[in-house]
Amino acid sequence: MTDSGAEGKGFIDESWAKSQNLQFRPLKRPFEIEVFDGRPAESGQITHYVRAGLRIADHYQKNMLFYVTRLASYPIVLGMPWLKQHDPQVGFAAHTFTFNSPYCQKFCNTPAKPAKIKALQTVPKKFLRQLEQNIPQSLRRKDILPISLQAVRLYSRRARCRFFTVTLEQIDRALQNKSEDLRLPEELREFQDIFSPKEAEKLPPHRAGDHHIELIPGGKLPFGPLYGMSRKELTALREWLDENLRKGFIRPSSSPVASPVLFVKKPGGGLRFCVDYRALNNITVKDRYPLPLIKESLNNLSGMKYFSRIDIVSAFNNLRIEKGQEYLTAFRTRFGLYESLVMPFGLTGAPATFQRYINDALREHLDIFCTAYLDDILIYSRTREEHIEHLKLVLQRLRSAGLFANPSKCEFLVKETKFLGLIVGQEGIRMDPAKVETVKNWKTPTCLTDVQAFIGFGNFYRRFIRDFSKLTAPLNRLTKKDVPFIWDDTCEKAFVRLKEAFITAPILRPFDWTKDVILETDASDYVSAGVLSQYDNEGRLHPVAFFSKKHTATECNYEIYDKELMAIIRCFEEWRPELEGAPSPIRVITDHKNLEYFTTTKLLNRRQARWSEFLSRFNFQITYRPGKQGVKPDALTRRSEDLPKEGDERLAHQSQVVLKKENWQLPPLKVQRARIRQPHRQGSIPIEEPILSLELPEDISRLLDQAYKTDEDLQSILQALKDGAPRHPKITLAECTIIQGRLLYRDRIYIPDYDP
């Protein structure tokens, strides 16, 4: 980024410079920088610099000096001295910089070099060897350079020149087929069509398993709003509509029903199309077809030696909406009304419909040598030969049912695999280590707060741990008044023994699909956490799994409502195999009361809409519990090891200037020079009442009056000014004045944080 207001030649972001392995060199005289309003920058003193080459298209400057600091949005900022030296011509309409100054022509502009073409994806060496068999030895391992058509014609006239052509489409097809072949055992190549992405994009025919939507009598058909979209979202919407119209998955509609649509950002980038079917789900009779009890299915794995796992691609889209009911799936867009011909995500009965279909497809083999849970299929056998035969039978049934698999998510002929949150293998079934990783990796406490959090977490389970008081005695001693914090070997032994007790029996129990589920969640400013628990036969609550995850820099800026909701989402994502298809409602316990009304909220933002679509797959009920009673998940969010330290981007992104100086275009605040001085005692700060020529709109003035009454900090500052106080902890009083009852700081009106 170029900044004509920056007085330094160049600045570079500290984190980005480290990622580029640039050498940091200390400055002899560190200095501070100021932001546009004269305040010192929050990044602190500049103490180091780096030297590196800078290339902008064909413009190159070597050995340039950059000052190292923390930048919010750009890795490099070029200041006014650099702009003066290079004097670029700016094309505002075309968004271009042109470097034609005498300095650049002499020192910076370099002739363009042909760029080498690099592969955009990796391929196995075996495949490269197969390709090279058809290329002469003299041409192998040569650099490939882009040349013009005229050059091709010129070279083709030379006697010793040999060349051949290949299209990108042919390369992609070869890579795709080869990657699929490499994942399939040789004995299963006859079923390669089941692993073809193109076959999975075809519109399935109507079948007995079509999705039926039964409406509650008297229910009002939904008609949702049309949300506004950005240009980028409209472009993505048109592409999504074109693609699904081409596939035949949707068609134009004249339905009286219309659900709203919106886009949400994918975690890895890009936009995801979502339809908000909550209103339709509210008037739909729930399909109670059961998802399988995994505990019963996995009882058949004793003595098995070979395992394979198959993942069905776009599972729901493999089924059609029952003929004549397509109008119920209609959704409104900027480009018209459309309805879905295939079963979309977000419908309340979709999981039950697909489970019924996959059960019918594999019924002859279920619990004999395979089990299916929605789109996940596990095949198990005693010998390799037997396993190949079982795989062929399953794949044949999938082919007959018109179902396709995702080769990148399948495993074949392995001795151990992960299935529905469990590790299954030759040695039996065991819990996924990730379920207890949060507690197992709990770092040694470094302060009193850490010790208190750990003891508070353990107090809930003290009835399951023999001699709990003796174990915690060294830790409890540290919490006493006037006792210095000294972490010795006794404390470390107690800490390690307690962690082991938390993640082993009798405290931690395996998940039981027949019992009710309790999910406790919590979120702090920087961490979200959860504890999954079930009652034993004596009515005692035992944990099944623990979870915690740090927030990203962006997530740290979410409102507390969204942070608490995100904790619930993360737990459902982490424990989907255990929670999806629960026979009775999962009791979700949170300390944020407003979340009880999430499922009835009329208008959601894009993030919440994505979460709502995901949660529609689960049977749950949110219950409020005061925060002081939620010790277990709360302790997992308060560990000092998870809190940001100095330099953490989670802190850097919390305080940012949203509207920078260059974004403002405000009329000046004109004040007449005649002032009415209020009497004040010696040493106090004068309260001046100039006459303003600028009047605030009545509604703004009224809001300010309301806000000023509720802002305690503001009232404290005003009182300090009136009392002539020498200082105030929140603000520099010398830069404050009161004008017509309004507080001005550096000639700017103070606007309180107020939500009417």
Give a quick set of tags describing it.
single chain; alpha+beta; Alpha-Beta Plaits; 5-stranded mixed sheet
Compose a concise summary of this entry.
With 756 residues, the protein is of the alpha+beta class.
- Quote the beta fraction: 15-25%
Q: Please state the structural category.
A: alpha+beta
Classified by CATH, the class of the largest domain is Alpha Beta
Given as residue ranges, the uncertain stretches (5+ residues, pLDDT < 50) are 111-122, 178-182, 667-694
Total number of helical segments?
A: 23
What report would you give on this structure?
This protein is an alpha+beta fold. The protein has five domains: 10-107, no CATH class; 231-430, Alpha-Beta Plaits; 435-502, no CATH class; 518-642, Nucleotidyltransferase, domain 5; 666-749, no CATH class. It is 29% helix and 19% strand. The protein contains 23 helices and 27 strands. It has a five-stranded mixed β-sheet. The chain has a five-stranded mixed β-sheet with strand order 22-21-20-23-24. Strands 14-15-11-16 form a four-stranded antiparallel β-sheet. Mean pLDDT is 77; it is low at 111-122, 178-182 and 667-694.
